């Protein structure tokens, strides 16, 4: 691209306008702005991201994501078999990752979906983990954006710690939940809070879900609202704070399970969670 065309493209991008590529003769839709190296006004600096750019049908980057394959419910009574197929997790060609739950008989299960993690690819200790997501809908649909302690293979769950940045019941369109799971406060006894979005549903548009983890403090954020903040004072007496070590990222859409219950006859399939980006920021070293 010539310098003149680059200047014009950047100007159009900054104004959020549609642009036309004369060489291709195709009008391109506005793209999500690329991440700044620093989150303005916060002091957070970008350390990792996936913007999910690429042709439709492309599998998620194997350098960044590791698909967990299998069924069994992961201890939550889920109904789906998670696969590494493009039918369940792939780029949509519009700058999004699409994780799709399907009703189909596969490997002994009645549904398929995908569960992607950065385990073995990327972990981080203190920082801001955020994703811009459009949620699926329907009873029994359970999308989530969350973190697990990287030491899970050594200490098991919940001693490793779990941070649920976003969990959503597909049958309750306006509410998300953020929570912490650790030794003595896991499962149904987690430490967390539900939060309702104003002026619509979480399924009608993209929303920003984020968590900020600092020493002895975790903040849960929906769009621009901090809706819950946890410190060791929130834990049951004698319980251990387990959020001062590296965590990896998980994106998934479950079908059924203890949090949402089973799908019913009104649940429409397929259901897709679209992820515009995932970004991780950290404080600069002193």
What can you see in these coordinates?
The protein has 286 residues and is mostly beta strands. The protein contains two helices and 19 strands. It has helices at residues 3-15, 152-155, and strands at 19-21, 26-28, 45-50, 66-67, 80-82, 89-91, 97-106, 109-113, 115-117, 127-134, 141-149, 162-167, 175-181, 191-196, 207-214, 217-222, 225-230, 247-255, 271-282. Strands 3, 5, 6, 7, 8, 10, 15, 16, 17 and 19 form a ten-stranded mixed β-sheet that branches. The protein has a seven-stranded antiparallel β-sheet with strand order 4-9-18-11-12-13-14, with no helix packed on it. A hairpin with a 5-residue loop joins β6 (89-91) and β7. The model is unreliable at 1-30 (pLDDT under 50).
**Helix-strand makeup class:** mainly beta
Report the radius of gyration as a whole number of Å.
19 Å
Approximately what portion of the residues adopt beta-strand conformation?
35-45%
Number of strands: 19
Average the pLDDT over all residues and give the rounded result.
89
Which helices and strands appear, and what pairs or packs with what?
Elements: H1 3-15, E1 19-21, E2 26-28, E3 45-50, E4 66-67, E5 80-82, E6 89-91, E7 97-106, E8 109-113, E9 115-117, E10 127-134, E11 141-149, H2 152-155, E12 162-167, E13 175-181, E14 191-196, E15 207-214, E16 217-222, E17 225-230, E18 247-255, E19 271-282
Parallel strand pairs: 5-8
Antiparallel strand pairs: 1-2, 3-19, 4-9, 6-7, 7-8, 7-19, 9-18, 10-15, 10-19, 11-12, 11-18, 12-13, 13-14, 15-16, 16-17
